[in-house]
Amino acid sequence: MIRFIDNVGDYFSTTYFDEDFPTKVLDKTGYARDQVGEFNKRISPLSAAYFKFKQLIIEGGLRTRDKKFSKHNFNTLLLETWLRKC
User: In angstroms, what CA-CA distances link 1 with 4, 39, 68, 69, 71?
Assistant: First the structure.
């Protein structure tokens, strides 16, 4: 099974996430394996920013306006990271 997918509640059959699953998903994306690897290298450094953003949204007690502003800032960071090398 892929390391970031958990079959919580057993909604999928045990064979759904077989060893062939990652290959099937990659084939559907239309990207080559090395392109996906490059994307992961660019996005991975954002994990700390993502978890900080997530904690702020969940536990921050922010007003709706401030939550929207935080979401905008994180999404801008995400898009800038993606577009940097496209």
Answer: 8, 21, 35, 36, 31
DSSP state of 60: S
**CA separation for the pair 29, 49 (Å, rounded):** 26
Q: Which is more confident, 74 or 23?
A: 74
| 70 residue type, one letter | S
* Surface-to-core class of residue 58, CB atoms within 10 Å of its CB (0-12 exposed, 13-18 middle, 19+ buried): exposed
Say which residues have a Cβ less than 8 Å from residue 16's Cβ, sequence separation at least 6.
7
Coil/strand/helix, residue 20: coil
**Where in the chain are the domains?**
46-86
Q: How far is residue 68's CA from residue 49's CA, in Å, rounded to a whole number?
A: 16
Residue with tokens 């007690």: 61
Question: What pLDDT score does 33 carry?
Answer: 83
Here the tokens at position 41 are 């290298």
